[in-house]
Amino acid sequence: MLIRALTRTCLVSIVTAASLHAQETGRVVGRIVETQQGAPIAGAQIELVGAPIRAVSALDGRYTLAGVPAGPASLRVRMIGFGPKTVTGVVVPASGTVAQDVSLAPEAVQLAEINVSAEAERGSVNRALEEQRNANNIVSAVTAEQIGKSPDSDAGQAVQRVSGVSVQDGKYVFVRGLGERYTTTSLNGSRMPSPEPERKVVPLDLFPATLLEGISTSKTFTPDQPGDFSGAAVDLKTREFPARRLISFSASAGFNTAATGESLRRPPTVGSEWLGFAGAERDIPNPVAGVTSLAGFDQSQINTLIGSFRNAWSSRPSNGTANGGVGITVGGEDPLFSQPIGYIGSFTYSYGQEVRHDETRSLIMRTATGFEPLNLSRGGTARNSILWGGILNLSTRIGAGSKISFNNTYNRSADNEATELAGENEEFNTDLDVTRLTFVERTVRSHQVTGEHLFGLSHLVDWSLSGSSVDRYEPDRSDIAYTTEIDPVTGASEPIAWLGGPRSATRTFSDLGETSYEGRGNYRLVLGSTDRPAVVKVGGAYRKTDRDADSRAFDITNRALGTADRQRSPEEIFAGPAAADSRLSLFINANGGRYDAHDRLTAGYAQVELP
């Protein structure tokens, strides 16, 4: 009886273990691409060798084999016009997912089946090289794989790794010596509006590098590109959903030998500016907000206006801190009401500081013998920078021939900066020490719906509808100028007294907003054989852009302050008694102003690509 019981127990254990082993399955996902150009192949047949498990690649070349038994597996891929391929040595994890991309070569003649053993055919760098090699124009790119191996925190730093590209001030792209006015910037193929008040340019430091799939730079023109660039067209591509479920977290820390732990003259902060939002104290004061002219104001009213400004004019000494950042990404593909939905959400936050010593600034004046500097000054700048943002991209495939995507991007940056310069000033015929405190808050939003539809093997239609907006808010910039003298011991320029003249104590409030709406569509017809195809493309686009900018500046000048009073710190001068005693005057600065602008663009093209 005991032997029979043990036998039954062993048999039950063996059967249970076998059942559990049989139930252990996983998934195989990946993309089917064309070998020569790296283009996705739709409609390819993928099957698991030795099992009735099959799939068909979608418009973007993606496929999913579900319910694959765990362990070694082989895949067979077939597509009319391409040589079949078998990939062996694919190891499927239990309850997990393995990614396996497969490339197919165009079949000009009848070939024997190709067997590849455990070849990992994936890698974004290789894909980028394929795109560059087969592009009709000169294209350079940097990929997410390369960005991930570098310390770059934003697109402005990452794009410097593209050949022929340099970046000015960490944000403006120069391509082969041509400035930012000759370069256009797009996000996922849609033109981005500009947050700069006096030029049409998109600063690349607005885009965190960890949110990008890659950056491509087109250095020559083709008809299917916008025709308003002569230097380069930079396209930032946000990340696409991964083939398998992904949850990742990252953290970084760094130090700057010139700033971290060193005593710096840093700008004062207000409220929760570590989140990139200007504190309410920086807003234009209520008594000043509605003032467009000072005509009819008596001195007591002028005193009230002057006293309402935030009393912050000077930088403050403090030790520099370490740089740092955090990021989290969640992505994958899961069914929703039996419809596969690909998704990726990512958030990143970074903090950094920068210090620049020995800056030299001047105007250039032409003379009979050449050029000479005018108003030459030297000094330094300390800046605290906040950059955070996120993306939420969704995508679904409808059958094997259609793909719909919904891409969303939001980024915010804030730069709090203190600049101190000392040097000669020809207008006032004296040496001046000038301190400027600046807080600039910038925001980018982008929403985009795109579609791709393949009809048969030769007809492809793609379209895009997008809306983007940018805001630039520069509240309460302060400029203060003191006369100086040279210290006989140190040789340094030391401030003596507030100048008190025009533009020697200025408060500026600026706000800019720009929105852009764009729709575009393309039709692509492939003719000829798969190994030497001819392509006919036609398409059109419409873009609507509107901008509104407002800048207001106020000058505080000396009316009756003596030298002893002007030798105080600016916070002491403007603390209240001077204004209350009617010893200061206020003027509306002519450099302020308001404008709006509108741009409408309608375009079309046709092109033929011959092998």
Structure description:
The chain has 611 residues and is mainly beta. It folds into three domains: 100 residues, Immunoglobulin-like; 114 residues, Ferric Hydroxamate Uptake Protein, Chain A, domain 1; 356 residues, no CATH class. 11% of the residues lie in helices and 55% in strands. The chain is built from nine helices and 30 strands. Strands 17, 20, 21, 22, 23, 24, 25, 26, 27, 28, 29 and 30 form a twelve-stranded antiparallel sheet that branches. It is elongated and about 95 Å long. The N terminus is likely disordered.
Helix content: 10-25%
Find the count of extended strands (DSSP E, 2+ residues): 30
**Number of helices, where a helix is a run of at least 4 consecutive DSSP H or I residues:** 9
- Average pLDDT confidence is 83
Q: Which shape, going by the Cα principal axes? A: elongated
Gap between N and C termini: 82 Å
Q: Major sheet, described briefly?
A: 12 strands, antiparallel
Structural class category? mainly beta
CA-atom Rg in angstroms? 32 Å
Stretches where pLDDT falls below 50 for ≥5 residues? 1-21, 117-124
Total domain units: 3
Strand content: over 45%
Keywords:
Immunoglobulin-like; Ferric Hydroxamate Uptake Protein, Chain A, domain 1; 12-stranded antiparallel β-sheet; 9 helices; disordered N terminus
Quick recap:
With 611 residues, this protein is mainly beta. It is built from nine helices and 30 strands. The radius of gyration is 32 Å and the shape is elongated.
Any chance you could write out the topology, listing elements then pairs?
Layout (H helix, E strand, L loop, with lengths): L1 H22 L1 E10 L10 E4 L5 E3 L5 E8 L1 E9 L2 E11 L4 E3 L2 E3 L9 E4 L6 H11 L4 E5 H5 L6 H4 L6 E4 L3 E4 L7 E5 L2 E2 L20 E7 L13 E7 L7 E9 L8 E4 L19 H4 L9 H10 L7 E4 L3 E14 L2 E29 L2 E29 L3 E24 L4 E26 L3 E28 L6 E6 L6 E24 L4 E26 L4 H4 L3 H4 L3 H4 L3 E5 L4 E17 L2
Parallel strand pairs: 1-7, 1-8, 6-9, 13-16
Antiparallel strand pairs: 1-4, 2-3, 2-5, 5-6, 10-15, 11-12, 13-14, 15-16, 17-20, 18-19, 20-21, 21-22, 22-23, 23-24, 24-25, 25-26, 25-27, 27-28, 28-29, 28-30
